[in-house]
Amino acid sequence: MICRPAKWLWGLPALIFVTAFALYGTNRQIERDLAEQAAAALQDAELQWAIARFEGRDAILEGLSFSGKERDAALRIVGDIWGVRKVVDNSDLIATPETYSWFARKDENRIKIRGHVPTKSDRQAIIGFIKAAMPDLEVDDKMIFAGGSPAREQWLGSVSFALVQLGQLKKGAVQLSGPNLSVQGEAKSSEAYRIITSPVGQLPKGVKLNVKNVAPPVVEPFVWRAKFTGSLLSFSGFVPSEKTREQILQRAKTLFPDTKVEDGMEIASGAPEDWLWAVSASMIELHRLESGRIKIDDTELELSGIAADERTIKDVTQSIQYSLPNAYSVREKLTARIDKAADKPTTN
Prior knowledge:
Elements: H1 5-44, E1 51-55, E2 58-62, E3 64-65, H2 68-79, E4 86-89, E5 92-93, E6 101-106, E7 110-117, H3 120-133, E8 138-141, E9 144-145, H4 152-167, E10 169-177, E11 180-187, H5 190-197, E12 208-215, E13 223-228, E14 232-239, H6 242-255, E15 260-267, H7 275-286, E16 291-297, E17 300-307, H8 310-323, E18 329-336, H9 340-343
Parallel strand pairs: 2-4, 3-5, 7-8, 7-9, 11-12, 14-15, 17-18
Antiparallel strand pairs: 1-2, 6-7, 6-10, 10-11, 13-14, 13-16, 16-17
C-alpha cells in the first residue's frame, strides 16, 4: 500500500469548513440559550427595559434605565447566569424619574403610542385599554421598555386618565412627563370639552394637568338664544369661551338685576366676528321689552317679543338696526301689549 500524504491536503478545506460550521452552530446555540435565560431573569425582576444580547458567552446589556440601582441590578442578574463570561454595559442612564415620558396621538383612524413603558404587562394593559375604549382605532405602538417610572399603580393610573382625555378629542395628543400631563387638540363635543377642562374628582393624585391647548368643537351653524319671560331669563346655544360666558352672565345681572338667570350655554368654536357685540346689543333691547326672545344664527339675528306700547316698538326697532355690527342682519317680530282693562266698555 502506497502512502501519498500530499493527497490528504485535498480534503483539508472540506474538513476545516465542517469543523468551523459545527463550531459556529454551537456558538449560535449558546448565544440563544444565554439570551433566553437572561430575558427570563430580567423579566422576573421586572427589569424589562434591559436587553441582553450575546457574542459567544459575553453579554452586552442595552436599554434605558432611570437609576443606577436598576442598572446595577440588571448587570448583576445577567452576570450571575451560569455560562456568562463577562457583561459589557451599553445601557443608557437617564438623569431623573421626573423625565419619564409617555405620549399618545389620535387622528381619525389611528392612535400612535410612543415613549417609555416599565414592563411587558404594562404595555399589554395600555393596549388593552385602548382597544376596549377606542375599538375602531388602529394602534401604532412603538413604546420602549425603560426603568425608573413612578410607582406602578400611580403611573398606570396617570396613563389611563390620559387615554380617557384623549378619547374625548376628535384629534389631538396627550403627553405624560413625570407628573405633568398636557392635553392638546380639538374636543369632539361640547360635553367632551367640559369633561377635559373640568375633571373634578377624576384627576389622579400628584398629576399636574395642562389643558390650555384644547380647542372647543367647531359647530355650524353657531346658534345662541335668550328667552325673557319677565321673571326668568334663560340662555341656551353656544358661546366661544368660558370668559365669554361669564361676560354674558355679568351683562344679564346688570340689565336684569331682579330676574332669575338660567345658564344652558355650551362652549364651541365657530362664532362669527363681532359676535359678542351682537349679543350685547340685542340684550340691551331685550331688557326694554316686557317679554321676548333673541336668536342669533351665525350672522342672522331675530328679536321677538311684547313691548309696552307702539312707541317702544319703534324705539327698539331703530336702536337694534343701528347698534348691530355691519355684517349682521336683523328681523323684528314685536307686538304691543294689549291693555285688556282699557278695552272693556264703560257702564253707566
